[in-house]
Amino acid sequence: MNDLQALKAQLVEAVENHQDELIAFCSKLIQIPSVNPPGDTTEITAFIENYLNDVGITYQKYEAADKMFNLVASIGNGEGKELVYCGHTDVVPVGDLSKWDFDPFSGEVKDGWMLGRGASDMKAGLAGIIFATKLLKKLNIELPGKLTLAIVPDEETGGEFGVPWLLERGYVQGDGCLIAEPSSPLNPTIGQKGSYWFELEVRGEPGHGSLSPLAGRNAIVDAIRAIQEIRTLWDVEITIPEEVKPLIEVSKKYMREVEKDRLKYQEVLEKITVNIGTIEGGTKSNVIPDYCKVQVDCRLPFGITQEEVTEILTTKLDGLAIDYSIQRFGFKSVANYTPAENPVCQSIVENISYVTGQEAYGVMQWASSDARHFRQYDIPVLQYGPAYLPSIHGYNEKVRVEDIVRCAKVYITAAVDFLYQK
């Protein structure tokens, strides 16, 4: 066994021996509400600061917006490559409390599960990368280069005060990045579809409801016609670029053989998906509505740009002869990926196999994430984190404790491999 392999074996054993600290840390993160909106990360950021201070890890703290804090912390000698481990502190709202079987902010461990909002997305992953970095520091492991933590506050709303804010100002750079977002145990995500969110506003003419449809112009009725056209974006034929076809095919394999309940969703990898998310319009049942607003979430495959979608959409809606406007908001990106042969992808994938003893490979995600921002700055990136995927953003969110520990082992060994590579 060479020195590097011996070091990795030592680190896996150290994670095993300190796993109670990891689980307690994760539990406390869940117990601190950091719901976005509103996005106040004051308390959780202070808690993480204290955790880093325990072993003297230095960091910079940036308040990008009111009560939205970024932390950037580093260890290593700084004389080589830089690896970034990134995670977000914000979580989505809990929704109807009566539909939870437990307190969403309990952070309770029960029957091998960590329970609570953010358990899978993504406080377990966040705990893992912070814990792994702290453990390397505690053990006085001499790392070449630099391992940097980028802990951000504003991911769940697609906001601009987290990763993009740090990258724009040069506060985070790197030769590779791992985002501890939820993933399959053996299949990190190395590519994402693009995002195209927009609000459609349709304007009509008011009138007395007793005279409809002969009087006025019903904005809701016109919006329904518009929705019917918007939904046909799914039918747009798209030519997938040759260079990403292997990624599409291996992702379909994953959906067939691993997440078998996803088999029926294979088409989404090559289609524009359309979700009519919210509708708001009218004032009273007896008044012809003079406005209707519809928010839509589309995800874009490889092979089509946002500008092309706008052109297709405008052509469809112009043909209806309605009074409308479109305003983009939220997530905005085109499909993007990091090649599987990139060193950061290889380091994570190979160490998943090292830790689990099973074959691992990267796949494509049908949603979007902060990964797109890193790729815009030419920083290769992938996602790998503990999760019980069916519970993400839903009621009774949870994650297996063993998955939290497994991912921490991957994080700590992959950091060693990546930073020691010439």
Automatic annotation (TrEMBL):
<keyword id="KW-0862">Zinc</keyword>
<dbReference type="InterPro" id="IPR002933">
    <property type="entry name" value="Peptidase_M20"/>
</dbReference>
<dbReference type="Pfam" id="PF07687">
    <property type="entry name" value="M20_dimer"/>
</dbReference>
<dbReference type="InterPro" id="IPR011650">
    <property type="entry name" value="Peptidase_M20_dimer"/>
</dbReference>
<dbReference type="Pfam" id="PF01546">
    <property type="entry name" value="Peptidase_M20"/>
</dbReference>
<keyword id="KW-0479">Metal-binding</keyword>
<dbReference type="InterPro" id="IPR010182">
    <property type="entry name" value="ArgE/DapE"/>
</dbReference>
<keyword id="KW-0170">Cobalt</keyword>
<dbReference type="InterPro" id="IPR036264">
    <property type="entry name" value="Bact_exopeptidase_dim_dom"/>
</dbReference>
<feature type="domain" description="Peptidase M20 dimerisation">
    <location>
        <begin position="190"/>
        <end position="321"/>
    </location>
</feature>
<dbReference type="InterPro" id="IPR050072">
    <property type="entry name" value="Peptidase_M20A"/>
</dbReference>
<comment type="similarity">
    <text>Belongs to the peptidase M20A family.</text>
</comment>
<keyword id="KW-0378">Hydrolase</keyword>
<protein>
    <recommendedName>
        <fullName>Probable succinyl-diaminopimelate desuccinylase</fullName>
        <ecNumber>3.5.1.18</ecNumber>
    </recommendedName>
</protein>
<dbReference type="InterPro" id="IPR001261">
    <property type="entry name" value="ArgE/DapE_CS"/>
</dbReference>
<comment type="pathway">
    <text>Amino-acid biosynthesis; L-lysine biosynthesis via DAP pathway; LL-2,6-diaminopimelate from (S)-tetrahydrodipicolinate (succinylase route): step 3/3.</text>
</comment>
